[in-house]
Design goal:
Length: about 190
């Protein structure tokens, strides 16, 4: 795990030096993409396409899932939005494509890492969990005061994944040792 952490620090320094942002994606005509949905879909699908598990995915349902995710991200939140999620997915890709990570993590764990990354800011209201607890926000009553936003984001993500039109991976399929549903419960429950 130390090798992965060392690799992560290397990329953080590189990313800081190149002004890493999905807001500079160049379209096929040589112009910077302006459509945030196209940017989000382009970044996410290109990242997923770089892993061998992508051949096991239903591409139409993946696009449906990513579109639903984009449409449900807050447009008002200046930071925790779909473009931030795209940036985060790109960063995770840089880390997970390296040899230490490819030797440590299974394909299921990589897919879950991408899904977790996509869901982190999904329902983020722009304030901290501590602030939500202080004002007795309804989310705190449902999810508790420690991982309020993260738990709410995971619930929303699972809701979208469980819709037939978005089910690009079979959550109940036995992929190796455990079904995806067991990975979700073990790793994010």
């Amino acid at each position: 795990m130390n090798k992965v952490m060392h690799q992560t620090l290397k990329y953080v320094k590189e990313v800081e030096s190149i002004n890493f942002s999905s807001r500079g994606v160049i379209d096929f005509n040589g112009e910077v993409m302006e459509d945030h949905q196209r940017i989000f879909l382009s970044v996410c699908t290109s990242v997923f396409a770089n892993f061998s598990f992508s051949c096991q995915m239903d591409v139409e349902k993946l696009l449906s899932f990513l579109t639903a995710l984009f449409e449900n991200y807050s447009k008002e939140n200046a930071y925790h939005n779909a473009l931030h999620a795209a940036d985060s997915v790109q960063m995770l890709f840089l880390i997970l494509r390296e040899k230490p990570a490819t030797l440590i993590f299974t394909e299921n764990e990589v897919i879950l890492a991408f899904l977790a990354t996509l869901s982190l800011g999904f329902v983020h209201p722009g304030v901290s969990n501590a602030f939500l607890a202080r004002i007795d926000h309804p989310l705190v009553l449902v999810y508790g005061d420690m991982t309020t936003q993260q738990s709410a984001g995971l619930t929303a993500l699972l809701y979208l994944l469980n819709r037939e039109e978005n089910r690009f991976i079979d959550l109940l399929a036995n992929s190796g040792t455990q079904p995806f549903s067991q990975f979700f419960k073990r790793d994010f429950g």
